[in-house]
Amino acid sequence: MNKQISCMDTEQFLRLYPEKPENAYKGQSGRTLLIGGSFGMAGAVCLNILGVQTVGADYICCALDSSIYPIAAARFLTPVFYPMDETNWKSVLSEALNDKISAVAFGSGTNRLPYKQELLEHLLRECRVPLLLDAEALQLLSSSKELLKTAQCPVILTPHIGEFSRLSGSDAEEILKDRVPAAASFAQKHKVILVLKGPHTIIVGPEGSIMRNNSGNPALAQAGSGDVLTGIMAGLLTLVKDPFTAVTMAVWLHGHLADMALSEYSVHSFPLESYPQLMNRFLRENSR
Question: Rounded to an integer, what distance in angstroms lies between the CA atom of residue 177 and that of residue 175?
């Protein structure tokens, strides 16, 4: 492995994070489509929305099962919602994808979605913008990796070590001995951006680019943290044109804001709902 491993920091992030022009209008920087949640798991897609809002992507579209639409719509007022069910999901999704979308995220909280397999296959065939697959979408792929060959867009996969073990068919303990070669081999073979989550998350691109993250702390070891990260990634994939750059920025920011939070919260009581406020503090402290 002779590729140089790079890192993100505050200076790089701020240089890459786009300024909002004085003549900005809604949707000028693109629209983010989130597809997530299922009965009993509305919180996952709500945390996705929170993540997108954290980075300031200002036009959020959300396709979700009709059973949880009232919950998400009561919690968030600004997204455009696309409620769907087993009878109409394909037409609803086609409408959403045609709505000037710049990035798509799918998978958070979709464990109980009856049509999740068909939805994943449809996205891989029809999506033409960066497609982020997380959580249950990774579980579906673990038994059908050949679907990745049908992708018509850049694909980003975000497994933790257990999910990556199932995806790759390799033993988790063996992967942990040296995560970089395992992640790089998978990313190059399947032509994806792979985000191998955990302490010092590894991000690798299909052409061999490697980023090792240096932010974050144990406060992130809680349910829902990955759903917020998915939203942050989706938002930055909307705002930043290069997918690998956007993903590395997102992983670093997710950890850095959690590091900032320890000035106020303990690692045992860090509320994920504080992410937008932490981002506001981060930007104001850096005159943005």
Answer: 5
